[in-house]
């Protein structure tokens, strides 16, 4: 007899809404240029949005500057952008939070997000921007400062009530309670790194087998972005305990197997999944 156990890391809560249809925090929406003044990321009809899929991302939409007009963060084709043509340019986001590429303003020209002596990053935990981009016509565009205190922050990396990041829900176009027919809500699919829109994609123990030296518990899918812990419980007890040496094991893709070498009594087994930081 087996049982699936899923654990989740709870992040800070946050709403998945902003002024307009983007995901910039209304309370932290400004960058500053000495030559261009304030640039507003949550401007009405701007829809400035940070997109992420777990490994890479990009920005889309517009920011507004009273002195420089609209600044567009990507071509209409969407990203990630190659930045090699007039129809495929924009600002990209790496898995580490580094921004690169170009934004464009009709009144100010190109703004480079990874210039020499500068560069812009996004904190993948709290969503805050930092650093400086460079425009030939406006000089440095700074994304965080003091006196007065200002900054730009995206809600993409905030989380909902069950700990699911906003970017993941947006990327899959679901809410935490979405059930695609496999009876696993979307928030648990996030923890297991499975597809919330595919009823055949869910975490499961696929087999338990005994050998003279160990009990082998096979499970799938085993994501390289998740860690797995084998837990056991004796028939006459209520508490689960970790199996020594089988704690926090990184997934390697496909079906993986964990082992319990203490085979002297019958046990219930479960596999705990955790989101790898």
Task: Describe the protein's architecture and organization.
The chain is built from 2 helices and 22 strands. The longest helix is centred in the middle third of the chain and has 7 residues, at 166-172. The chain is 5% helix and 40% strand. A hairpin with a 4-residue loop joins strand 4 and strand 5 (57-60). It is mainly beta.
In short:
This protein is mostly beta strands and 277 residues long.
Which features would summarize this protein structure in a list?
eight-stranded antiparallel beta barrel; 277 residues; 2 helices; mainly beta; Immunoglobulin-like; five-stranded mixed β-sheet
What is the total number of structural domains? 2
Q: Which segments are poorly predicted (pLDDT under 50) over 5 or more consecutive residues?
A: 6-20
From the alpha-carbon coordinates, what is the Rg to the nearest angstrom? 23 Å
Decide which structural class fits the backbone: mainly beta
Across the major sheet, the strand order is: 2-3-6-7-9-10-12-13
Helix content: under 10%
User: Hey, roughly how much beta strand do the residues contain?
Assistant: 35-45%
SSE string, helices as H and strands as E: EEEEEEEEEEEEEEEHHEEEEEEE
Describe the global form. elongated
Main beta-sheet strand count, sense and barrel state: 8 strands, antiparallel, barrel
Number of E strands: 22
Number of helices: 2
Could you give the distance between the termini? Answer: 31 Å
Mean pLDDT: 90
